Amino acid sequence: MANITIGVLCCHYTNQAGEEDFRGIPGEVILKRYPCSGHIEVADILKTFEEGAEAVLVAGCEKDRCHNLSGSLRAEKKVLGARKILEEIGLEPERVRFAFLPRLDTGPFMEEVRRTFETALNMKSKS
Amino acid sequence: MIIAERRPIPKVLKAIEPYERVLVLGCRGCVAVCSAGGDREVETMAAALRLARKLSGRPLKTGEATFIRQCDPEYLAPLKDMAREYEAVVSMACGVGVNLIADLFPEIRVYPGVDTTFYGANPALGEWQEKCRGCGDCILDVTGGLCPIARCAKNLLNGPCGGSQGGRCEIRPEVPCVWHQIYERLSARGELDRLMNFFPAKDWRPAGHGGPRERVREDLKMG
Amino acid sequence: MEPRSHLHRVLSEGHFAVTAEIGPPKSADGEVVRRKARILKGYVDAANITDCQTAIVRMSSIASAVLVMAEGVESVIQMTCRDRNRIGMQADLLGAAALGIRNLLCITGDHQKFGNHPEAKGVFDLDSIQLLAMVRGMRDEGKFLCGEELTGARPEFFLGAAANPFADPFEFRVKRLEKKIRAGAEFIQTQIVYNVERFRKFMEMARDLGLTEKAYILAGITPPKSFGMARYMKYFVPGLDVPDEILKRLKEAKDKREEGINIAVEIIQQVREIPGVAGVHIMAIEWEEAVPEIVKRAGLHPRPLEAEVRSPIAVEVEKPVERVEVLAPPSEKVPEEVPPKLEIPVEAVKEVFSTVRSSMEALREGINLLHDSLARLERALLGGEVVPEEVPEVPRLEVKVEEKPVAEEKPPVEEKPPIEEARPPAEEAKPEVKEEKPEPEAKKEEKVEARVEEKPEEKPEEVKPEEKPAPAPPAEGVELGGFSGEYRPLSERAAGLPEDLYKEPGTAFIREVEIGKGEKAFKVGGTNVLPFHLFEGEMRHEPRIAMEVLDVKPEGWPESLTRYFADVLDDPAAWAKKCVETYGAEAVCIYLMGTDPNYLNLDAKHAREVVEKVAEAVDVPLIVWGAGHAEKDVEVLREVAEVLGDRGAVIGPVEEANHRTIGATAMGYGLPVVASSPIDVNLAKQLNILLENVGVALDKILMDPSIGALGYGLEYTYSVMERIRLAALYAQDDKLQVPFICNVGREVWKTKEVGLPSDDLLGDQEVRGILMEAITSVALALAGGDLFIMRHPKAIELTRTIIRGLMQQN
């Protein structure tokens, strides 16, 4: 099977995942950490696709736990913006997803990463 | 300010279809304030164009720059050299910017990256509303500061029409009937008699129906 | 002053004027206009011709006026400000005057958004008041708007304007009328009056300002052609006030058109009493035939003055005139006798009524047959010839039979024990029980059935005992007969009537949602008409029914329901299998009741296991319904979705509180969701929008309007669903163009009535429950329901049979 790449753009505080954790993912992960998910722009998401990701996960802190108050809420909206553009250029909007995650809890984070990988897998097999 | 909206990517792609090197040029004036053509949107547009072209197998090289304004020749001057490296320019400024580039640099192929929509205000984050149509002969003095030319779907000057219901316009229920608002405003001020005056047919020449409009201030002109 | 026109003369001499509206055709067929003019001739003082009304392109008002005048009827032309600038308007008005047109109504015009060219550039160079002033200047001062002199003949128009007493702000409406009169209006046509009280108040204010002295005010009158039209006007036409009383009258009327004419006549009589009302303007939209009748009944016929209308040059086309003579030779001599030839509509209308009556009878018979079949089915199911484990139940049943021997051994004669509670879905159909065969078991409870009134002309000989069996369900399952009687397609019955008289398909389609995957998958939605209006549009998919199973053994279900599942109630998988294999279920809904934190609070793992087992046991599409606890459902449905990813199962309910999370889960697995909102149009719409915002496509949503069972708010649900569907189909509300899912079984089987014992007053317990469930479902199918979740196998079969019958037309 062809190698599958996914992108993970996340708030630094959503997880403590290390190389170890990603070993379970049977593909390549482009990981970009930000001091807050509110800092992630639509362009960052698009660029991650440009770098070869089949699907992208944007992860931010739970709604009321963002230390910048509304960073993750903004990030969620940016994902909608990115979806619109993906659709316009003929990519499935589901390729990018957003997840609100508990702070510094790697378990749920990795669960979302795995789901994103499944999405990528689906997309790849469809095309 | 002038409000604009990102042009659908497929339309921009079609315009730049033949080219491999394109400059995406933003403007820090109105379009930056209304989040349509500032630095951030330039970055997004460029990334989207590259991604789409990559997917279609014909990769695109983009340059990104944003000028302070695109409606003044002095700010546009650097474009002359900058554009040499590119086959085309996608301007994220309002239509004025695109026109001025086309006027000043006939050799540059310039294409619009936004659709210019109206003159509006920004009453809330992510929301813009038309408030003025630049009709050149202001009547706000008699309508309580609310413009029926810009805000009434039928541009009525002797409104409200029969479609006004519960203060809403029949066009779309979320649109307030501006004539109802004018009525209430003047009524509260005890100035309803103003509305009883017949508003004669409007002279539409200052609104642009007399050809492209120009403004000249002799006291400022040099040479 | 010499009157400017015939209409002006009628009014100035103090007669109560009558004008009527003519809507020109959407074609170049002048005969349409002439025919309408002939209908009105002798009944109106002038015919008023609309100018592309509601912004739909039609033959021009001026050209139509010329055709109307050729029939000897005076015309009033309308001119809107929407389509012409001041140059075009003045030019057209000079031309109209030159053609002999003498009356002009100046209006701003409906916005182009409402018409068939919403992309058009609306001109609105002037507004109606400026237009009035402009024409008055041309006429009285001989000046064009620009001030230039108009030398030669001036356009001598009798000038009119429109007024809407029902728009807002109310207080300013009279003021604006005054403005129009000051600008030159000599007569006024008002918006359609239904709310006479409000109109009276308006007239009072107008009198106070002395306006009735300065202009002739004609009250707008429209006979409502149907309940639907009146309701549409009430809810969707801005600036139109239709009191509930009018709706009620139409709703209850047997002959809607007759009632519509009555209403119009009454309103004319009422407004005539209001001081200052100088006449009426009748707008019988696409129903000009009604005008002569209304005028006659209102006592306004014959008209006081005869119009001398000179037909403008060259329009006297020979052909059509000759045809008139052929059709109506007698009307030449006695003009006031009969309106010029209504022959086609009257005949056709009569025929429609008679066929409606006969199809009603057929329906009634069909329902009778259903009852018979229900009896036979009872026998087949419980009489011993079925699954062995049900045998023990038989004795119990037989006891029952003996307990209430309602009927003697009378063969096929009608039995009429009236039972109030068990009314059939449609009031018009008055089913009566017929004993089919004198078999001992068959006569038990099936003779319940309601009778509403005496119907002596019942024809029992038309009942065919051997009706066609319903096609689909497996033999050993529940089976009922279909409808009997012949269906004559509407196109045949309405032959001769123009189609647009009775067809009004929606402007959009309800989305199609795919339920399940693979061979057994089906779609719901995909309609552009009100339910079962197959004659005017498409219903691509029939309403479907899913059978409900619970994750835990149900408590408190009446025995009349549990006996069908007694052997499987504690095994969801076996239960589902029985639903499919024995009762022919097309889909299964698993209700995870046990996970409810307020009940057993079973965990997500339990849910997963149940769903896994059921999914393995049956291959039909699945619906998984959580406990309805916003937080718990998130957890449970996420777990379940993993199991169901490849089944395309529907999951829900999604509420506003958990739409993001469940929406995301559903999207991740490509599953449709049930969007539940509490019986409210706006909340339903809002939830759809929210779901769409998080990325759930509209064709992955089923709306659950939260239904009420019969006797428990069914009518409220009905009306909300109906409004949603009307908005979706006729008001382009694309966020509501989503199919409905109705969770009927749960609501019905928790009511008190299904559990009360059999007695004389309430009748048999089981039949009561079956009918309550079936009636609830059928009623909601008529409101637009697309997918039903039900429990009782017989109620399901009954519902299915009726739906199938309704789908069989054409």
CATH topology of the largest domain in chain B, by name, is Rossmann fold
Number of DSSP helical runs of chain B: 9
Number of domains of chain B: 2
Helix content of chain B: 25-40%
Structural class assignment of chain C: alpha/beta
Mass-distribution shape of chain B = elongated
Number of helices of chain C: 27
As laid out across the biggest beta sheet of chain C, the strand order is 1-2-3-4-5-6-7-8
Structural Rg of chain C? 32 Å
- The CATH C-level name of the largest domain in chain C is Alpha Beta
What about the largest sheet of chain C?
Answer: 8 strands, parallel, barrel
- Share of helical residues of chain C: 25-40%
Strand runs of chain C, count:
20
* Major sheet attributes of chain B: 4 strands, parallel
Side by side, the strands of the main sheet of chain B go 3-2-4-5
Structural class of the helix and strand makeup of chain B? alpha/beta
Beta-sheet strand percentage of chain C?
5-15%
Mean pLDDT of chain B: 95
**CATH architecture classification of the largest domain in chain C:** Alpha-Beta Barrel
Description:
The complex is a heterotrimer of chains A (127), B (223) and C (810). Chain A has helices at 19-22, 42-50, 71-88, 106-126; strands spanning 5-11, 28-34, 55-61, 96-101. With 127 residues, chain A is an alpha/beta fold. Chain A has a single domain, classed as Rossmann fold. Chain B has 223 residues and is of the alpha/beta class. Chain B has a 4-stranded parallel sheet with strand order 3-2-4-5, sandwiched between helices. A 3-stranded antiparallel sheet of chain B has the order 1-6-7. With 810 residues, chain C is an alpha/beta fold. Chain C has 27 helices and 20 strands. The longest helix of chain C has 40 residues, at 343-382. The chains are: A alpha/beta (127), B alpha/beta (223), C alpha/beta (810). Chain B binds chain C through residues 153-167, 170-171, 177, 180, 183-184, 192, 195-196, 198-201, 204, and chain C through 81-82, 86, 108-111, 113-114, 122, 124-130, 133-134, 145, 162-164, 167-169, 172, 175-176, 178-179, 182-183, 191, 238-239.
